[in-house]
Amino acid sequence: MDRLLSLSQAARMVGVPRHLLQQHIQEGVIEAFEGHIRMSELQKAYPDANPDRSGMVEKVKRIREAASMKANRDFKPNVDHLCTELQRARVEIERLQEEVAGYRRFAAETEERLLGLQEQCDARQAMML
User: What are residue 116's DSSP bridge partners?
Assistant: First the structure.
């Protein structure tokens, strides 16, 4: 897919003033589409056009490197925060273990009551339990 460049990007890429590119567009040397120039059109008029010369590639690389360095620097875990989160997790685990124990007690009590009821009822009722 052909890259669309703004007039400013194209001018930087070929190293000419913007007004010269505008003149080439008006003369029909270069075709433009809604204020943008296709890379292939630019290379027809300027065979030495270098996509890396625009400076945008270098700028993007610098931005990415800076963001990567910042992300790595900011990612260092805060020990106090981790300790607090660990303590919260321990408290939550303890609460959940107590809740599970309560459910187990409830299930055991229910089973005992059902067995007691089953012994007290007649055969037809016992099958339902």
Answer: none
| Verdict on whether the full-model pTM lies above 0.90 | no
20 and 65, same domain (yes or no): yes
Give the largest CA-CA distance in the chain: 106
Pair (9, 69) in one structural domain? yes
Q: Pairing between strand 4-6 and 32-33?
A: unpaired
Bridge partners of 5, per DSSP, are: 37
Of 47, 48, 49, the closest CA to residue 5 belongs to 49
What pLDDT was estimated at residue 49? Answer: 74
94 shares a domain with 67: no
Which pLDDT tens digit goes with each residue over 87-121? 999 999 999 999 999 999 999 999 999 888 888 88
At 38, which helix (H) or strand (E)?
strand 36-38
Q: Which two tokens stand for residue 7?
A: 């007039």
**82, 77, 24, 84: which is closest to 49 by C-alpha?**
24
> Residue 11's domain spans which residues?
4-74
